Amino acid sequence: MPETQYAGPTEGSAEPDLNPYRAGPSDADQPPQRLHECASPVLAISLLAAMHFLVDTAAGTINPLWQGFEKHFGVGSGGLLWVAICWHGASSFSQLLFAWWADRAPKRWLIWVGPCVGIVCMGLTGLAPHPVVLALLLVLSGLGIAAFHPEGAATAGAVAPSRRSRMMAIFALWGYLGQSFGPSLSANITAGFGFHALAWSGLAALLALMALMTQRRLLPMPPQRVTSSSDGARGESRWQDWALLLSVGTLRIVPSIGVPLVVAYWLSDQVRIGSIQSAFMIGVGAGSILCAFLVRPQWERAVIWGQPLLAAPCLIAIPHVPPAWLAPTVGVAGFMLGIALPVFISFGQQMMPRHPRAARSITQGVSWGTAGAIVAAAVWAAIKLEARPQLFYVLAVFSFAAGLLSLRLPRVEEQQQ
After folding, report:
1. CB of 172 within 8 A of CB of 143?
2. Residue 6: inside a domain, yes or no?
3. Is the pLDDT score of 267 beyond 90?
C-alpha cells in the first residue's frame, strides 16, 4: 500500500521549526530536545505517573457497575447505556477543547483542578438517588478527567523530549495500571459494602492527590503554542492529518473500550466482571512496559500497524475459550493492543509538533469518545439481538481495520539519539 510523505518546513520560512524530532542545521550546536529537559526527570515522571494512576483508577471505577446500577435504579438491561455515552463523551470529546485552550496559554492548574473534580464526582456517584443525577456526576467527573490528560501528557513529553516515547510509555503505563485497579476495587467494595462505599474510596484518592500536589514544583513547563496563519501553509495541521489520526485512533480504541464494556454485559457476576476487566487492563499495561523498554524508534512504525493485526485473533478467541482461560486470553488481547498505544500518542505529537496537547486529545481523547459511542451502540444492538458474545468478532474487525489503515500514516523524520 503506498505511503504518503509527511511535509516538512518550507525553505526560507521565517517561523522556526518547533519539532524536536526533526533534525536541522543547528542541531549539532544546540540540540533542541535538550533545552527543555527538567532538572530531575525521574522525579517528575514519577509524580506524573502517580497522578495518572489516581485519575485513571477513578475513571475505571464505573466499568463493572453498569448492571449493578441498572438493578439499583430499577431500569432494564441496557437502560443506562445513554449514561455510558454521556460519560465517554464528557471524558473524551472535551479533551480537544481543553487542549485547544491550553495550547494557547499556560494552564498548569488543569493538572490539579481536573483530577480533584474527577475524583470527587466519581466518588459521589455511589450516593446518586436517580439516573439523571448519576449522569450529571459522571459528566462532571469526565470533564475533570479530560482536563488532566492533555496537559499531563504534554508535561510528560517535556520531561525528557529526547526520550519522548519512553516518557509517554511510562506515563501511559501507570494510567493503564489505574484502569486495571479501578474495576477490581469498585467491584469488590460495592459487593461488600454497597454503592455508598465509593464515596469513601473517593475521599482516600483525594487525600493522596493532595499529598502529590505538594511536589508540583518538580514538573517542567511544556512549550506553549501560539497560533499562526502560516500553519496551514506549512502543512503541520492539515485537516487530512487530523482526520487520519482520528480515524486510526478510533479504530484502534474501539476494542480497547469494547472489551471491558462487552464483558460488563456478557458476564453476570460483578466480582468476576471486575477481575476480567482488570486482567485486560493489566495486559494493556504490560504492553506499555514492553513499549517503554524494548521498542526501538526504528520499530515504532511497524508496531503501530502490526500489533492491531495480531490482536484480532485473540479477540475472536475470547468467547470460545474455557472459563479458566478467559482471563489469560483477555490479558493477551490487552497486551497486543497496549504495545502500540503509547507509540501512537507519541507519533501524533510528532506529526503535529505545534499542537502537542491537541495531538494527544485526538489520539486518545476524541478517538476515545467516538469509539465509546460506537461500542455503546453495538452493545445495545447485541442486547436486543441476544448476541452479546458475537460482539468480540466486531471488535476484531475494528482492530484489523486499524492495522490496515495505519499503513497510510505519513512518515515522520526523527532524530535518533
Report:
1. no
2. no
3. no
